[in-house]
Design a protein that fits this description.
By secondary structure, this protein is of the alpha/beta class. The protein has a single domain, classed as Undecaprenyl pyrophosphate synthetase, CATH 3.40.1180. It has seven helices and six strands. Strands 3-4-2-1-5-6 form a six-stranded parallel sheet, with helices on both faces. The chain starts with 11 loop residues before the first strand and ends in an 11-residue tail after the last helix. The model has no long low-confidence stretch (mean pLDDT 95).
Length: 239
């Protein structure tokens, strides 16, 4: 088992969970089965993150563009989302995980929105890990939204100086630090409109492993790679 020293672990890990459909195709199963097994990976990675003491985990679960998928697949994904929240709430409470959402919650059904609110309310006092799920999320839309809200503040005289701090206040979750480490499964070399503002200096790691197969050991291997990175944030080290 690959071990990483606690002081070399990231504070915030973000993951683009990709490859459920391809995994199902490889196994000669329906796409729904790939999404179902993908939930098992979500659970294992969440628990491992908690065990390691990493305080923030953000998972890209459903983009705004995903609404254009076949209606039956979207319907099935919404069912699995509700089932996930129902089944995982006891684990969140037991492990001290606070549930958070970024994205356009109003795009979802009223019943799912109520479920979001219920889980967020019940886990609000938990302190071990902030688990953020990106749902109906678009990085570009988040930036445009922040600009619009900042302009409204300027018109109202609430902001005298436009800078990164003023802009950041209007992100979906401004109190959560930017990711130190972004993992993308399935080998695709793109950000897919995910956290475009926040990943300016994030270390990126791409693995060919499909999300349903991305489990604890693969996660530990990725973290070991992060520990080797020399993060300079645009600076240079003294020779």
């Amino acid at each position: 088992m690959t071990k990483t020293a606690p002081d070399r672990l990231p504070t915030h890990v973000a993951i683009i969970m990709d490859g459920n459909g391809r995994w199902a195709k490889q196994q000669k199963l329906k796409r729904a089965e790939g999404h179902k097994v993908g939930i098992d990976s979500v659970r294992e990675i969440t628990e491992t993150t908690c065990d390691l003491g990493i305080p923030y985990l953000t998972l890209y679960a459903f983009s705004r563009e995903n609404w254009s998928r076949p209606k039956e697949e979207v319907k099935m994904l919404m069912f699995l989302l509700g089932l996930y929240l129902e089944q995982e709430l006891p684990m969140m409470m037991d492990r001290g995980i606070r549930f958070n959402i970024i994205g356009e919650r109003s795009d979802f059904s009223r019943s799912l929105q109520a479920q979001f609110d219920d889980v967020m309310k019940k886990t609000a006092g938990n302190r071990n890990l902030v688990l953020t799920i990106a749902l109906s999320y678009s990085g570009r839309k988040e930036i445009i939204r922040s600009v619009r809200l900042l302009c409204e503040d300027v018109k109202k005289g609430l902001v005298k100086r436009i800078d990164e701090r003023a802009f950041r206040r209007h992100l979906y979750s401004p109190a959560i630090p930017d990711p130190d480490f972004l993992i993308r499964t399935s080998g695709e070399m793109r950000l897919s409109n995910f956290l475009l503002w926040q990943v300016a200096y994030t270390e990126i790691y791409v693995t060919d492993i499909l999300w349903p197969d991305f489990r604890k050991q693969a996660f530990l291997d990725a973290l070991a790679e992060f520990a080797k990175r020399d993060r300079r944030f645009g600076n240079v080290k003294d020779f």
